[in-house]
Amino acid sequence: MHHGGASAKGLCYMKELLRQISEFLRSSFLVLLVLAAAGLGIYRLAKLQIVAAEEEKQQGRVSVQVYTQVIPATRGEIVDCNGEPIVSNKIGYSLILEKAYFPDDNAEGNAVIMGCVKLLKEAGYEWNDTMPITDRFPYIFVNDRENDIAEMKKNLRLNQYATAENCLDKIRSDYGIGDEYSEEEQRILAGIRYEMLLRGFSMSNVFYFSDDIDLRTVTRIKELRVTLPGINVTENAIRTVENGKVIPHEIGYVGPIYSQEEYNELKANGHDDYTLSDQVGKTGLESACEADLRGFNGKKEITVTNGEVSSTVITQEPVGGKTIQLTVNSRMQMQMQDHLENYCKLLRETDAQCRDLNAGAIVVLDTKDNAVLSMATSPTYDLSDLLEDYNAVAEQDNFPLINRATDGLYRPGSTFKPVTATAGLDSGIINSNSTFYCDTNFTYIDHTFHCTGYHESINVSSAITVSCNIFFYELGIRLGLDRLMEYERLYGLGSPLGLESGDSGGYLACPETFERLGIQWYVGELTQAAIGQSEVQVTPLQMATVASTIANNGQRWKPHLIQSYWNNIMTEQLSVKAPELSAQVAQNNADEVYPYIKAGMVGAAEVPMLPEYDLSSLPFDVAIKTGTPQSPRGTDSFVIGFAPADKPEIAFCAMLEGGKNAKCMVRGILESYAANYPRSQIARGLKKK
Questions:
Q1: pLDDT at position 19, please?
Q2: Cβ(421)–Cβ(475) below 8 Å
Q3: SS3 at position 32
Q4: pLDDT for the residue 49
Q5: Which among 172, 583, 595, 638 would be 20 to 30 A from 393, CA to CA?
């Protein structure tokens, strides 16, 4: 019994054990099932998250940006009256950087820049770097560039006391220029990086790295575009001097925009599409006519998708600037320049008193409207030489950068006497028969003045012919200063005449001028003012205008250099510049004024001279008035006039600083005009002779 009970207990124990094992297995299976399900869920969730993240990432990379880039307009040309180019454009190539392709990383960008520098060095080209800091150690600011230095400190956000080293350190820091580059390379990188900043390098504004490169270099650049991202070549119009000897002062030149202030001024003058990398007129007509010459830039849209350029579309074609046709005759201009320089040379070689003579001017105007036909000045320069080495030209003797025709200021001497005569005749102080007595001496208050001759009783025409000082002393006193100055101003003296490229106004002898110059004014100065002495200062252009005004019986036309405007390729004339009447000098009765002044000037031309200079033997009358004004050089020599006297075609002024007998140049002026205008009365007259 005992054993049988034990067996039953063992059996029950086994059953219980099997049941627990079964429960455990069932529970484990459920746990595993749950774990498996959870794992699968986690896996699927993770997968979904990864996919979603990838999709989100993909969507984040799909960025589309559109930028507008400028297409530069071709600058208008400047041509002479016959259409001969003076400055034009040639097709050239420039190495540029484009922001859309250029690395954002400073280190990578610096590597691209140095790659370009290496390429240009090998090809013998320079790169654009106008930073006003010396290119070798020790680094200091460049002299005479104060405005550029101030602009640089402002651009770099440095205070006004910053040194050149401070500026370089700031650029090195901003652009990651480190010791992996040599000192020379660091300066090169800093200069180019600053130039890029100065020129507004951006998606819409390319950076011109180097200009006017040859085709061999163009090919090399294209080969390196893969390894130097951002570099490219653009075809552009490069300003070219065709004839640098033709009125170089008045033509002027182009150059880069140097400051934000200049940029803002340009945009305010009618064009809002300037970029900081543009070439603009800096002096002369290039500057004065900037708005006409520059044209209108075009535009192209660059689409950048996921960091890569996906399309480029031209949305606006550029419109080339206007071509400007001048009144100047290039051939006559060069002849006048030679004529002036040759006569100066002749006097240097034949007259001991003129041994240092090197400076003078000739102005020739068309009397119809005061169009400038030629305007010579000595010494002068070739515009090409100036652009090649400005300092070399500027440092030459006798200041060749000054155009003596428009900006040289001189006492006019006796060439001024027709102005005083006009005031006397038109105001009724004298008439054609009025006489004054000349016995060589004239006393006014407590001072005695002199005349070069003993002319006895003399009228206005004869006084002009023989240049009697005493007649004009007397007339000046009777006129009074205010009335004399009124007629001076009517003739255009004392203020600029308004030439397109600019001209000096000079000043008149009066108490205000004397006070400004720190000189004591005496009442007796009026006598000297009446004969073109005292402190009156005029330009040869002003005196040529006086001659033209007399030729036109008191009508003073505004002198001008521009004849007409054409489209860029000169196939269509857009407009012709209309003559501008500046003043009518004779306010009362011109018929009682100018015949007598002209008669006196014709008489002055009838004085015999050597055959090669003689005017009295010509088949037409010439009207002239000479002057030998006192100057710091001793005496200058002036002549003004017009021809033919009865039906004038040209008016002129010739002047020599410290020279003699400027009237001897008149014959050469007439012969040059005849050669270039064969249908003129002067040409026909000289042919008959």
A1: 60
A2: yes
A3: helix
A4: 44
A5: 638
